[in-house]
Amino acid sequence: MARYHDIAEAVRGAITRGFYERGSQLPSERELSEEFDVAPGTIRQALGELETEGVLASRRGSRRTVVGEPRPAATFEEFRSFAQWASSRGRVPAGHVISGVWQDASPLDREELRLPTAARVFCVVRVRLLDGSAIMVERTRYRDSVGAEVEQISSDCPSVTAWLAATANITFSRAEHQFSACPAGAEDARLLNVRRGSPLLMHKRVSFSRDGLPLEWSVDRYVAGTISLVVDNSLNANALRWA
Amino acid sequence: MARYHDIAEAVRGAITRGFYERGSQLPSERELSEEFDVAPGTIRQALGELETEGVLASRRGSRRTVVGEPRPAATFEEFRSFAQWASSRGRVPAGHVISGVWQDASPLDREELRLPTAARVFCVVRVRLLDGSAIMVERTRYRDSVGAEVEQISSDCPSVTAWLAATANITFSRAEHQFSACPAGAEDARLLNVRRGSPLLMHKRVSFSRDGLPLEWSVDRYVAGTISLVVDNSLNANALRWA
DNA sequence: AAGTGGTCTAGACCACGTT
DNA sequence: ACGTGGTCTAGACCACTTT
């Protein structure tokens, strides 16, 4: 739809097809604006997209440089949702609910979800399978408005995210993630079929609505070696920090 | 220097000071352009910066919404460099080199660093300390041009990154990171003073120059519980993917 | 000196969401 | 119907780098 996005895709495609080689130089923005018959600003917007992806690096005075392979450009949803990620890779996601109960919000819940002093949260423990084997246990706590919807989802629904978007018009637009490592606890070991104390990748996540309201927070634990996380960052765009 | 950046900072500051409350609504872009006496496009660029940070969320028809607390906006360097991160937090970074040797590039080196079939790499093993205790072991492999500089660095230099920038004019402009969990091996256990098999956060990293040339790649292993990684993503800007 | 990217102007039109 | 953000135009000037 947007012209600048089409141009970005066109340039990305030209790089993929080898028309522009790695390390070679793109035409100047003014030349490109004539070639595509758009205003220079539109070209800048297009190239800006590719710069953020790390495909291009710009230099003044000299000419801008083609840097690397274009990335598949993973979407936000693909990352946030286990099922959508798996499907996009041609793997088979599955999952079942171990428990789903309403609890009074703990102080931690109230902080993460910005809840008033008296509030309930819907707590779900799920085990996620990839191609038939358990790789992750997920402990999620939903704020009441979302929990009321989640409660109605059948326990073997492959994608909670997709269900919420389709039937309750609840979508996530931003998330904050924290990663660390931890030893498997007793319940982890039982659910994931690993030994106690074996290494797990821990992923804490808080997901927000478009309005910035925290909708859920979750602690997921992955069996080491099954899955890993990839992040790009650059001088232009950095979404990472240590804590 | 750039007007749009000043405006972004001004709005960020206004949010921090509570002038705009969380969940409240910003003036329209046209109003802001009058207030700051700039063209509308400049305002868009400024607000775009805040949207990517997740501080603002925009909606059409209604008015755009102030979403959350402004983040400290960690810089790329702060994340890439252990020493710079630690210093910025008022903690004491230290490190010493366990070994530093030239080796023939392995097939893996050649792939990660895009080297020709015959090439050397400079391999360094370092232990990093935070406030006096060992928390990370780092195994880095530099391409020869960088290795030649690294070789001259004294073994207790706190920040290799800062040294390279200052004396050899070598700067990193982009990096790709991969995170997973793994058990401590024999050497890890000895260097980090933990038991074999205890969980470590594994961080593989490839760093690139402005021109997209891979300069080094590294596998760092952190003692679980000492440090964790935080990432933001959103529908607008997503730098994460599973692998 | 010439060319480039980075920034900015002062508009325009459209699609969308709310009223 | 109206106001909003999203996109785009057709320029301009400056800072920087290389020639």
TrEMBL record, chains A, B:
Superkingdom of origin: Bacteria
Gene3D superfamilies according to UniProt: Chorismate lyase-like (3.40.1410.10), Winged helix-like DNA-binding domain superfamily/Winged helix DNA-binding domain (1.10.10.10)
A Pfam family annotated for this UniProt entry: GntR
Keywords on record: DNA-binding, Transcription, Transcription regulation
Stretches assigned to the HTH gntR-type domain: 1-70
The UniProt record lists the keyword Transcription regulation: yes
PROSITE patterns: HTH_GNTR (PS50949)
Cited PANTHER family: MANNOSYL-D-GLYCERATE TRANSPORT/METABOLISM SYSTEM REPRESSOR MNGR-RELATED, MANNOSYL-D-GLYCERATE TRANSPORT_METABOLISM SYSTEM REPRESSOR MNGR-RELATED
The protein's name in its UniProt record: GntR family transcriptional regulator
